[in-house]
Fold this protein.
Amino acid sequence: MRPSEDHYRHKGLRKKLVEELKTKGITDERVLEAILAVPRHYFLDSAFTSIAYDDKAFPIGEGQTISQPYTVAYQTQLLQCKPFDKVLEIGTGSGYQAAVLGQMGVQVFSIERQKKLFDTNKEFSYLKSFRNIKLFFGDGFEGLPTFAPFDKVIITAAAPHIPEKLLQQLKVGGVMVIPVNEDDVQRMMRITKTEEGVFQEERFDRFSFVPMLEGKSNHQ
Ligand code: SAH
């Protein structure tokens, strides 16, 4: 069962989490405000409410995880979102990253390849309360050509390479944040499309994500 109440106790825990993220180097006030606002315990079974605000990743079933708050904050900060940006997310997972972006007032298009996670998220009332979040069942390597181009693309699974189709779906001036495989972990990269066909690459810290896999999975 998902919890559906947000108490002062939870808000207090979120304040502490935000302070912890600041000491770890997150400075973007809009990102920190969104993390302060989104009840992360809604994304976990009520049995795990007491640890929902630890700065840790957590299993959510189907072999997937809800990303660590620091990782969510780090990627979101690198995206440099402006209100009303069109943002494509690959790997909806728990929906937490989508909610943080939604809370920041961008238009979120989030794709998940696992049918069961997609179906669960479709029924998740807190996520449904965001009119600016749209969920899709599909293969993130394909992106969403019908909704392209996007201002921003965020990949929240370990990418074997930078998917060409996603680069094509970026606007000129657009930014992609993607963890790309390097040895056993991933290097966070930011790709900026400076002109049509011209990309600038920046390298950041190393992280550990679950793999980005080809194709959809219908397993129930
Ligand atoms: N953003 C998530 C983190 C999810 S973990 C959160 O905030 O909780 C990564 C997710 O990416 C998993 O749910 C996995 O099923 C999904 N995924 C992996 N490869 C994918 C692909 N090719 N297309 C879409 N989703 C994918």
